[in-house]
Amino acid sequence: MRIIAVLLIFTFFIHGIGECQIYPNKNWFVNENASDIGWNDRDCSDFERYIIDSTNITGLVIVHQGQVVFDYGDIEENSYIASCRKSVLSMLYGKYVENGQIDLDKTLEDLKIEDHSPFLEIEKSARIKDIIAARSGVFLSGSNGGDFRRLAPERGSVQPGSYWLYSNWDFNLAGYIFEQETNKDIYNEIEDQLASPLQMEDWNKSLQLKNGNLEVSKFPAYHMWFSTRDMARLGLLMLRNGKWLDKQVIPKAWVKEMITQRTSYTEAQHNAPILKEDGLDLGYGYMWWLIENTQDSKLKNAYSAQGALGQNITVYPEIDVVLAFKTKSRYRRRNSIQTQMKVIRKAVEIYKPN
């Protein structure tokens, strides 16, 4: 297993009686004795062989108890994270929901939002909370593809909030609303709220770029580029309920809101039957996927940020583990969603606590 650059100064933060939490400083701490805490060398080698033989992953890291226990490939290079961007945006919302600048009950009519196609009267009642849950009931085309809009029912046929559809129109609008209500730029907020306090090693604001066909919709996609090891920091922040060292970076209550079920896996699979083929049953919160209906205790209450081609951050709260992996599209490599789900399972199958 390749050793990443290590700064052997790391921070212990006491959290409750008898429990220590470890955070990286500028560099991750690598646990050189991971086999002592359940990550057997042979099992890790078998997992690495699986990655090489059966996936197109270009970088992967597993963090357990705040330390790197396994890494593979190039975990330093920034590349496109696809729809993981949506989960990152959801994290940014928390500060402004807490201070009242974003009122989740505001409607499209309240916000004075307009797109090229006029809204139907019923659509005007869609609230921000519906939009960030992919339940707006507004079935317009987004400025970029890669969603389930082809499966949408007829416009005006459902009440906002009552129907889930994974739609980039909702997600792009969520970015637009964030900037309108806070008067802040998304990428500046990532830097201020996340990259700086988490001491991200590879964050580069100059790489970040909004894009989309603005003739189709006024709302661009807020694309993002992160390294695998910086994605793992985001996962660790979520695992620690929004706290980093002694600072509450994201309100604890908002972390809970993001991963509270808004859509069950049964509803998601009913509205998008293709999800039945994924290999894990996935519900939905506020722009985070929720792993449901599992008999594996290690996967209980787990949740993910997921992106096309093979971008992923998965948090396993029951075992204090974060998984992050990437597939750099520039290399013309990609992983199916089914492969992503297998990696999510196999990454913790190799964990065998003593």
SSE string, helices as H and strands as E = EEHEEEHHHHHEEEHEEHHEEEEEH
Q: What level of helicity do the residues show?
A: 25-40%
Describe the strand arrangement of the main beta sheet, using strand numbers. 4-3-15-14-13-12-11
| Apparent shape | globular
Mean of residue pLDDT values: 93
| CATH-defined architecture | 3-Layer(aba) Sandwich
Query: What's the CATH H-level superfamily name?
Result: DD-peptidase/beta-lactamase superfamily
Count helical runs: 10
Instruction: Tell me the distance between the termini.
Output: 21 Å
Overview of this protein structure:
With 354 residues, the chain is an alpha+beta fold. The protein has one domain: 3-Layer(aba) Sandwich (Beta-lactamase). 29% of the residues lie in helices and 17% in strands. The chain has helices at residues 41-54, 84-98, 108-111, 128-132, 168-182, 186-195, 228-239, 252-258, 265-271, 337-349; strands spanning 11-14, 20-23, 59-64, 67-73, 79-80, 209-211, 221-223, 225-226, 243-244, 247-248, 281-284, 289-292, 303-307, 311-316, 321-326. A hairpin with a 2-residue loop joins strand 3 (59-64) and strand 4. The chain is globular and about 60 Å long. Mean pLDDT is 93; it is low at 1-18. InterPro entries: Beta-lactam-related (IPR001466), Beta-lactam/transpept-like (IPR012338), Diverse_Enzym_Activities (IPR050789). It comes from Sediminitomix flava. Residues 60-332 form the Beta-lactamase-related domain.
